[in-house]
């Protein structure tokens, strides 16, 4: 016997592949096993017992009208058997070897090929069926995708995250109308139950129990950090696998081809078996020219296994017919339904995950096959196709990683003295953030899409919010919460149109800081959302590439006190809107490509501070017009290309701070000494060779910065400025420091590094406020001071 296990290699598959075998493939597999057993059984009989037994025919040679075996047929089919009885008992004079020779010769020549090779044909055809059924599991181009899919599918099915996600959805569904009805029923019973009525009290208890069962979600297993990371990796695998598999349809095509091949094979087998099955005959007539050897040329032979083979053939044909019907149904299923598209509509409706995408091509085809096995696989697999589910997982992992205790360790005081929490480059916003009710400022930088949950209302002290490259969505309930509470918001994004619209509805906002670019086609118009709702806005900062001052700035003209426009070098052409800012106190026009001081500035009667840093100012002749800005206290003209200061500067008698550093000044006008209110003068990083003696008239001067110039000496009148606290003379060409420096008793900071000094005057000891930490000078020069001077400076 040939064991059936020898043919196992033709259909051997991984056990996990069974999920891709629909019922018709399973039925076909059992049918092929049955057909294989028929073939193996027939082959075994063919090899061990099949034989043919022949007897010579005594019919004369001249009578060739009928075959040698026709006389043995039943009555009515051939002639009577009377003559046969007359020959009974006759000896044929053949020995055993001659009989064996005749039997073998007639078996090879007279027996029909179908009767001889039927069992072998059955085995061969069955093996072909087996190969066709499992070929796509073996073909390299398809087996790798199938193995990968089965591996991911199993992990998704067994993942604790799948159970948790579906359980959460189940819990949310249970909080629907049923829970509401149960709650109302309980309230009704409670109202009717009076005190002291035990029976009604028990009834109330019984009716209240279903409320707990209905409204409480099922217990959800908590994921530990390792399980969360595994689920996160699964999401990435599913994304990459989907992108790879959806590109082609080789699995679908291969399955159709092998099914078509099986149908063609079935038709061929059925036709030729029905044609030749009648050739399996019990009696076989044999005519061979062996008269010289045996003395006979005609023989009547008996095929001993013909009856059994005939029954096996009909049984085999029956199995083939059933097999063919399954193949035809498979073809119908393949072409009747759009198997290259798969919709998760039912899963979306059942789970509530409305973002589960439909799939196509081979991915869709495999999911259709999975549904034939168990649709639960597709449902659990769909969890890993949902971005909502992925975001929930990321949120869960974030909450595991960033506990409330860990976040509290990151709390720091910012420049405003507020308790600030700064988070940077996280995949999301941990829910534990909203447990820190003491937070006053929240800074989020480079964090993915943020959707503030209702828990935002727990941050009752929140006043400042910074969103730096962190797009955020704010539900309406949270908008109401922040609308009157939030005082400062900072938004930084690639383009200003990405600024969330809810920002412009925060009516309690006092400071709005926006940073981003206008699209090239909109930069000239510089259209910004309306600011009408920002009734309390006092500070507006805009860093962009605007071609003009946004028209919406005039919406807050009645209460805006500080405006900062940073243009990153882009030229600001139209500034007429500034004239409407009647109460503006501080104005910054930084890197706006300005070549002249804008005339619109001179209309700002309430202006106190003006900053024109990093522009292209060469001449400031318009400085005379600043006399109309009677409240101007600070003028910053630093980091420009100013070559001289006009004499009109004397008109700025109320000016207290003047910044002219990083320009191209070589001299200062003597009229500068007439700015009697000046407390700070910064002319560092220029090319000054000398100073006018009139600087000594600045009796209110407290801070004078002269570093990085080319000064060779200082006028003695400079030391008449008795209120000087800071004097910066570093990196000049001074060869000596006058002893009059001792008259500056209020001096607390003196910089002398980078000069040509050989010694320091001992009169520095008279500067009572000057300590060693405030004296910036080379160590050798400091060591040259008298010991008592050094001791006094080092004394605390």
TrEMBL record:
> What keywords are assigned to this protein?
Cell membrane, Disulfide bond, Endoplasmic reticulum, Glycoprotein, Ion channel, Ion transport, Leucine-rich repeat, Lysosome, Membrane, Repeat, Transmembrane, Transmembrane helix, Transport
Origin: domain of life: Eukaryota
Query: Membrane topology for this entry?
Result: Multi-pass membrane protein
Primary localization class, coarse: membrane
**Family of the protein in this entry:** Belongs to the LRRC8 family.
GO BP, one annotated term? cellular response to osmotic stress
Q: What is this protein called?
A: Volume-regulated anion channel subunit LRRC8E
Q: Where in the cell is it found?
A: Cell membrane; Endoplasmic reticulum membrane; Lysosome membrane
Q: What is a single molecular function from GO for this protein?
A: volume-sensitive anion channel activity
Enzymatic reactions: 2',3'-cGAMP(out) = 2',3'-cGAMP(in); taurine(out) = taurine(in); iodide(out) = iodide(in); chloride(in) = chloride(out)
One term under GO cellular component = plasma membrane
Which residues span the membrane?
27-47, 117-137, 313-335
Q: Which InterPro entries match?
A: Leu-rich_rpt (IPR001611), Leu-rich_rpt_typical-subtyp (IPR003591), LRR_dom_sf (IPR032675), LRR_domain-containing (IPR050216), LRRC8_Pannexin-like (IPR021040)
What Pfam family is a match for this entry?
A: Pannexin_like
Where is the LRRC8 pannexin-like TM region domain positioned along the sequence?
1-331
Q: Report which gene this protein is encoded by.
A: LRRC8E
SUPFAM superfamilies, per the entry: L domain-like
